[in-house]
Amino acid sequence: MSPAGFTSVSDERSRGDAPILGWGVVAAFAAIAALIAIDLATDLAAGTSVTHAAFEATAAALGAVAAIAVARRLRARARSAEDAVAVLSRDVAVAEANAARWRAEAAELSRGLGDAIDRQLAAWGLTPAEAEVARLLLKGLSHKEIAAVRAGSEATARQQATTVYRKAGLAGRAELAAFFLEDLLAPRSPVTEPPDPR
After folding, report:
1. Could you tell me where the beta strands, DSSP code E, fall in the chain?
2. CB–CB of 67/30 below 8 Å?
3. How wide is the angle at C-alpha 150 spanned by C-alphas 147 and 153, nearest 5°?
4. What is the spatial distance between Cα 34 and Cα 110, in angstroms, rounded to a whole number?
5. Is residue 187 part of a domain?
6. Residues 6+ apart with CB under 8 A from 57
7. Between 128-138 and 154-168, two packed helices, what is the crossing angle to 10 degrees?
8. N or C end: fewer C-beta atoms under 10 angstroms in the chain?
9. Which candidate, 84, 90, 33, 96, places its Cα nearest to that of 59?
């Protein structure tokens, strides 16, 4: 709120009532101009002085000009908002299309990775139960969690995990995960230290 009690444009925007208040201002200026014009016509009929008539005519004209100026500004602001909405709508449509494409690609890659893992588990000669345990190990489940998922005992899950590692020729869970992740991760360039400025 300004010191004179008028609402600033930023205050109006923050409350979201700028269009209502703006068109109220247009109506007020138009009403003032109309009332002054009616008073001027009445005064002219009564034989008022030229100076008084000129003053009232100027006031009526200023009211009309103010109403027109505020109305134009409101229309321009509305057009600008409509343009912004159109641009944002296009951006949202593009983002949604990109997201759908990425989801489809991710699903395809995930299926491909799952198929590749299944082929490798079969190549190691794992039984279906051992292959399921291997997949659960790759997901990061503990032996206790694997037992709960498979409705078995923790000792059985631990034994099957040991069999998976033995048949795969790996030392444990870390090597199992590394076996499948190694080729997925792009090689990183070595980090170089910036030269010493001294």
Report:
1. none
2. yes
3. 35
4. 72
5. no
6. 40
7. 90
8. C
9. 33
Q: What percent of the chain has pLDDT above 70? A: 83
Its domain, for residue 160, covers 124-181
Average pLDDT, the chain: 84
In three-state secondary structure terms, 24 is helix
Indicate the pTM of the whole model. Answer: 0.47
Pair 32, 83 in one domain: yes
Q: Output the pLDDT for position 134.
A: 96
User: What count of other Cβ atoms lies within 10 Å of the Cβ of residue 118?
Assistant: 14
pLDDT value of residue 135? 95
Q: End of a domain among 84, 99, 114? A: 99
**Residue 45: both structure tokens together:** 């009929």
Task: Read off the pLDDT of residues 64-74 as tens digits, 9 standing for 90 and up.
Answer: 888 888 888 88
Q: Count the helix, strand and coil residues of the chain and give each as a percent rounded to the nearest 5.
A: 75, 0, 25
CATH number of the domain where residue 174 is located? 1.10.10.10
